[in-house]
Amino acid sequence: MKREDFVFTIGFHGSAAIVDAKAKRKYGKLGTIELADRGLYRSAFASALYAGSEAELEQFMQFYREQTGSEISGVDSFKRLFGVDEAREVSKTIAV
Which of 14, 16, 92, 96 is deepest in the core (most CB within 10 A)? Predict the structure, then answer.
């Protein structure tokens, strides 16, 4: 699954990922902190998770805590908060 598809996935239908095409077009080239800067926290977290970089995840989590005053910590807590988990195998993407 491509990064932009993962970042803007809004759900799944069987093995197909449902992708927000409008958001993907508008924000797909932005990096993790750029997405977070625009208030797209779920997409920013998905971007950091997709990158697989502990440093990028920590940078996002710190940014989120500073912006929101939240005391959430740990990747698992953020996964639950945003309903995002590691990329899974998808057979196709459906843009809506």
Answer: 16
